[in-house]
Amino acid sequence: MEEWSGRELDQQITQFLEANRLRMIGDAKGLIRINSVGQAYAPGSSHPFGEGCAAALDEAVRLMLREKLDVTAFDGYGVKGQLAAAGEQGKGSIGFFAHLDVVPEGEGWGFPPYEPFVRDGYLFGRGAMDNKMAAVAALYVLKFFAESSMKLEHGLYLFLGCNEENGMRDIRHFLSKHEPPLFGIVPDAYFPICYAEKGMLRADFEGEVKEGNLLSFSGGTDYNVVPASATALLGGVVPDHARRLLPPAFTVESAPEGVRITVQGQAGHAAFPEGTDNAAVKLAAALVESGLIQGASAVRALTFVKECFCSPYGHCLGIAFRDEAGAATSNAGAVQIRDGRLSLLCDVRYGVTQDCTDILEQLASAATRYGMQLVRTEDSPPHHIPKDDRFVVALCELANRQLGTDQPPYAMGGITHARWLPRGAAFGPLRRDQPSVFPAGRGGGHQPDEAIQLETLWDAFRIYVEAVLTIDKLLSEGEQPR
């Protein structure tokens, strides 16, 4: 294997970026223009996650073929592009794993979410940060090695899935048909490297809301997004009366049936509730406390929302916990009351040493106390790599050296494709040492006005190129990730 000095490698990367930055941005914009919010899972369909996700995968195939990669489609779940000239047969591969599906756009945007643009060094649009620009960066890492004289001892590929946000059936399907990589890089988090991801439990609650004046209630779009707004329709209520009983932050409008009440919250990712404000919980609490709601079942349903989700850290559900991965979190991500029934989609992120069985018992008990039912659960167990693993240490040192930081490997509540890989980790492209330039609740993944700083991506690209070389060398020396 040809060796390059650090200076030579840096020069090669600089030249490559100068030649390809605009193309990378253009490719990312093309992907962002596609509304790839996943739809209801349709097993057996050629488009199991809907037309938008299928269109995003079609665009990914086009880009991969343009770069002369060996392309394999995985039944509408994802697509793999393999660097044809990399590695020797039978030695195994290094894999990048990213996703092209996005969460629903929600409300409060300052511009159309699927019309991307660059301003002040940031690329804006739904999916810019999570995860389309990073997916393009990984594609161009393969392009870099295809065009360079540096030959790898192991294969190199990129897998792009379309169900990361809502079940991760994409990577599970891939691994059911393809051997796992010797080591997987997941560019869907922060540097320096994530060594542990919390468990994720999704829980569906239901209950009857038959009598009373609560005609409808709606807040939130999905499990893992903190609701940005919530609206309720009440019958037989005079608008001026409602305005006197509610705080000024609540909007009261006349409706044919009575009044429509709306409140804004602060959106964000369910796994990172700091600075968020759940609008659905806020509205439920205000309606109960004001006395505007009539009917025992309606009061009970909204009290369930108010009291069980009053804290994003599980205290009100009896599942508060903290370990090396941080505090457990709980989110009422989508709350609907319609046609006499409550539906609540709950996201729980729990510690790497926390017992999921205990959590399930607490959730079922909470539902019973309020006349609700826990009707469905889906668990994704925690992911953990030892901090002193040779690969973790090497990649952590690489990221810190390139970024001029001195940060330890970290654990997080966010979950990525890495949790399904026998050997892999979430590794950038974002930075934890730089504060956001956007107002609270804006500019991040799962938030309105989503954006990613382009300079961050160029730094990450350099790190990813060197990471491939580092992993390739460790594997050639006989190192095996633990």
| CATH class descriptor of the largest domain | Alpha Beta
Number of domains: 2
Gross CATH architecture of the largest domain: 3-Layer(aba) Sandwich
Count of alpha and pi helical runs:
10
The fraction of residues assigned to DSSP E strands is 25-35%
Give Rg in angstroms.
24 Å
Secondary structural class: alpha+beta
Amount of helix = 25-40%
Structure write-up:
With 482 residues, this protein is of the alpha+beta class. It starts with 5 loop residues before the first helix and ends in a 6-residue tail after the last helix. The radius of gyration is 24 Å and the shape is elongated. The protein contains ten helices and 26 strands. The protein folds into two domains: 6-197 and 383-476, Aminopeptidase, CATH 3.40.630; 199-380, 2-Layer Sandwich (Alpha-Beta Plaits), CATH 3.30.70. 32% of the residues lie in helices and 26% in strands. One of its GO terms (biological process) is L-arginine biosynthetic process.
Q: How would you briefly describe this protein structure?
A:
The chain has two domains: 286 residues, Zn peptidases (Aminopeptidase, 3-Layer(aba) Sandwich), CATH 3.40.630.10; 182 residues, Alpha-Beta Plaits. It has ten helices and 26 strands. Helix 3 crosses helix 10, helix 6 packs across helix 7 and helix 9 packs antiparallel against helix 10.
